[in-house]
């Protein structure tokens, strides 16, 4: 995100605002990128308010925020903001998850998505890109550290 906010096309506006958890909280890698690129980071609720979407149902939300999806999604679920999203397209990053507590928190976030009515309709594992796959210390196999997962909210059927 090195480009400033701008009108990308007649129907698309780009805002140089990052998504974080409560109070704009990011994971470590997100904090490093924010410092380097001087991003403004807000919670999903704050971004919706800023853009005039506070009480609206959003058809599609796409999130790719370099491991900071974990605190952002937790906050979105806790505040009920996920209840106003029909489709959630995510890039999940699973590096840094060797600590059992980190894994428990991430699994809790996945459970929050399920409780909010989200069901997976598409998944894709990144494979073969330099630096994307890592050898785990426990298992002698390569595992990807990045997944694209698309969800639909079964509680928000189109009228």
Report a brief summary of the structure.
The protein is of the alpha/beta class and 159 residues long. The protein contains 4 helices and 10 strands; from the N terminus they run E-E-E-H-E-H-E-H-E-H-E-E-E-E.
Detailed description of the structure:
It is a single chain. The chain is an alpha/beta fold. The chain has one domain: 3-Layer(aba) Sandwich (Rossmann fold). 27% of the residues lie in helices and 31% in strands. It contains 4 helices and 10 strands, in the order βββαβαβαβαββββ. The strands form 4 sheets. It has a 4-stranded mixed beta sheet, covered by helices on one side. The chain has a two-stranded antiparallel sheet with strand order 1-2. Strands 3-4 form a two-stranded parallel ribbon. A hairpin with a 6-residue loop joins β8 (133-135) and β9. α3 crosses α4. The chain is globular. It starts with 5 loop residues before the first strand and ends in a 6-residue tail after the last strand. The model has no long low-confidence stretch (mean pLDDT 81).
Major beta-sheet overview = 4 strands, mixed
User: Unreliable stretches, pLDDT < 50, 5 or more residues?
Assistant: none
* Beta-strand fraction estimate: 25-35%
Radius of gyration over all CA atoms, rounded:
16 Å
What is the CATH architecture descriptor? 3-Layer(aba) Sandwich
Shape: globular
- Between the first and last Cα atoms, what is the distance in angstroms? 36 Å
**What is the number of domains?**
1
CATH topology: Rossmann fold
Summed over residues and divided by their number, the pLDDT gives a mean of: 81
What is the SS-derived class?
A: alpha/beta
For the record, what CATH class applies?
A: Alpha Beta
What is the H/E string? EEEHEHEHEHEEEE
Would you count the extended β strands for me?
A: 10
